[in-house]
Design goal:
The complex is a heterodimer of chains A (about 120) and B (about 260). In chain A, about 50% of the residues are buried. Chain A has one domain: Beta-Lactamase (2-Layer Sandwich). With about 120 residues, chain A is an alpha+beta fold. Chain A has a 5-stranded antiparallel β-sheet with strand order 2-1-5-4-3, sandwiched between helices. In chain A, helix 1 packs antiparallel against helix 3. Chain A starts with a helix and ends with a helix. Chain B is built from 10 helices and 5 strands. Chain B has a 5-stranded antiparallel β-sheet, with helices on both faces. In chain B, a hairpin with a 2-residue loop joins strand 4 and strand 5. In chain B, helix 1 runs antiparallel to helix 2 and helix 5 runs antiparallel to helix 6. The mean pLDDT of chain B is about 90. Classes of the chains: A alpha+beta (about 120), B alpha+beta (about 260). Strand 3 of chain A pairs antiparallel with strand 3 of chain B.
């Protein structure tokens, strides 16, 4: 099962500029499966991504835009991308600054469709 | 002619000096026979020129007829005769309200309530004026806030400027149902910004510049136009995220200018 999930994650990590992708339990930030480049701290990434998703989910609900389908945290040296994968699972991707965001987003949405 | 008017007319004919003219004129006013009511009360005023009740009644007849300037003169005469006359105070409050002078209206009504705290019509009028005052205050706040982004598409419902503590600085944010959600959302985005800052720092991503949330029904774009401020742009799902980002950049430049001006 994990090998299957890792293969799905590998499709995302093949996008140039993506440093890692992982499936994370949204509620507690625990890692379910991961495909990370060396140097990416998986546990920290999972926990921080889950916490951020929770905060943003509350803000999104208050504004009335509904549940998030894609989240992009843009920063000076890279980005964090989140897509809900259903059943309380998040697909989390960390990238360099120069990533093709549109492509990374598409691959994440395809990966989520396969996970579901 | 109805029975009560017939009876009052007969009473007044029997004793032209009686105060029955007040009841007769009021009965005619209530039947919207304003000319007849005015004739009766003016005849009464010839006999009782210092009667505040008569001047007050004449003012109400004039107000009903739409002659507000003449009504004001009549109420001012009544007020000069009796500054604690409840009807007169209500009349002057009504005129102040019509002039948009809500403070003046509240002053008059509070004076009337001081004279007769049990007068339900005064209590009701006070409530109406206070509600109007609150509505104007809220409208003023909204206008002051949206003025920051005047001319921006959606400025009146989907552009919010908040400080890092979650307090609204300006702009407006409305829910799908039209309710004002600016304060609630400002608090949430301040928390989300703190979380973003922590996340970016611990993952060695450097300073965060924007957070984009694509939702089932719309998009959010959160950025920090200045160290002390957060800007949230909300648009419905029909607007592409790239366009939302462009709008956010323009709004951020405007917000920076506004913040600079506030700093003096």
């Amino acid at each position: 099962m994990t090998a299957h999930l890792v293969r799905i994650l590998d499709r995302v990590t093949r996008v140039r500029g993506v440093r890692g992708a992982m499936l994370v339990a949204a509620e507690d930030g625990l890692v379910i499966a991961e495909s990370l480049m060396e140097g990416v701290r998986g546990n920290a990434l999972a926990a921080l991504a889950a916490a951020l998703a929770g905060r943003l989910g509350r803000a999104a609900a208050a504004t009335g835009v509904g549940s998030a389908t894609f989240v992009h945290l843009e920063a000076a040296r890279g980005a964090l991308l989140l897509v809900p994968a259903g059943q309380g699972v998040l697909l989390v991707t960390i990238t360099d600054a120069g990533v093709n965001l549109g492509l990374a987003r598409l691959e994440m949405l395809r990966a989520v469709a396969e996970v579901a | 002619m109805t029975d009560d008017i017939r009876a009052l007319t007969a009473e007044l004919a029997r004793d032209p000096n009686s105060l029955a003219f007040l009841r007769l004129a009021e009965a005619l006013r209530l039947r919207e026979q304003l000319d007849a009511a005015a004739t009766v009360v003016l005849a009464g005023l010839e006999r009782h020129p210092d009667l505040a009740d008569a001047h007050d009644l004449y003012a109400r007849i004039l107000a009903d007829a739409g002659s507000l300037d003449a009504a004001r003169e009549a109420w001012e005469r009544a007020f000069a005769l009796d500054s604690r006359h409840v009807g007169t105070l209500k009349g002057l409050a009504y005129l102040a309200f019509c002039d948009g002078d809500l403070d003046g209206a509240l002053d008059r009504l509070e004076s009337a309530l001081g004279v007769d705290p049990t007068d339900e019509s005064v209590v009701q009028a006070l409530q109406t004026v206070r509600e109007e005052a609150e509505r104007r205050l809220a409208e003023g706040r909204l206008r002051a806030g949206t003025d920051i982004f005047a001319g921006f598409e959606g400025a009146e419902h989907g552009l919010l400027l908040a400080d890092r503590r979650g307090l609204v600085l300006g702009g407006a944010l409305r829910s799908v149902a039209g309710g004002d959600v600016a304060e609630e959302v400002a608090a949430y985005v301040a928390g989300a910004a703190q979380e973003a800052e922590r996340t970016a720092r611990l993952l060695d991503l450097g300073d965060w510049s924007a957070i984009v949330v694509e939702g089932a029904a719309g998009h959010l774009h959160l950025s920090a136009p200045a160290p002390e401020a957060l800007l949230l742009v909300k648009r419905d799902r029909a607007v592409p995220p790239g366009r939302v980002a462009l709008l956010a950049r323009r709004a951020a430049a405007t917000a920076r200018g506004w913040l600079e001006a506030q700093r003096g």
